[in-house]
Amino acid sequence: MSRFAIRSNLAALALVAATGGLVAGTVMAAPTPADGGPAAMHERHHGGGFHKGMRDGLFVPGLGPVSKAQVAELKLDDKQQALFKTAQDGQRSLHEAMRASGGKRHDLLKAQLDSGKLDPRALIAQSETSRDAFGTQAKQVRDQWLAVWDSLNDTQRGQVTQMLKDREAKRQDRMAKMEARHGKGRGPAEAAPSAAPAAK
């Protein structure tokens, strides 16, 4: 994939994030900020997206993902499974639409570069059209995931709560270890400036 295509795909994803669209395929295993805005998308991208265990998982807007293995622990009934599948299908459709839009923007930019006539207004107009389209679709997907959450019983919600608590505890532990490692890199000489030699 070219650099332009990558940039256009990231731009499309950022537009969806700005509308509050929460996309399971673009989130990482860490909790997503509750506003679902650009800061949330920043975390998702730098987390590398879903790994294999998360790809087919459940996504709770405002809370983050629940892995496929963890979903199995919830023992969803038939009605919940149907809602879950609807949300997954909506998610895939949104992801495919974003990829297609990224390709169209790349083609438009390439055509402008090839002709030597850049038209930023045309690129902006296409981006705005995509934003509006993805905003509506992303909200639909968000509502589909929320419908799955609404269908969970108290026991299942308690399980999800515990899963998120465990995940947060692991995150805090990783951060503490990172801070400890960075702190060890400073020697005594760096920690405090040496005193100037006494004048004779």
From TrEMBL:
Amino acid composition bias (Basic and acidic residues), ranges on this chain: 165-182
Higher taxonomy: Bacteria, Pseudomonadati, Pseudomonadota, Betaproteobacteria, Burkholderiales
Keyword presence, Signal: yes
UniProt signal peptide: 1-29
Annotated source species: Achromobacter agilis
Name of the protein described by the UniProt record: Periplasmic heavy metal sensor
Highest taxon above the source species: Bacteria
Alphabetical keyword list: Signal
Biased composition (Low complexity): 188-200
Region annotation Disordered: where it falls in the sequence: 165-200
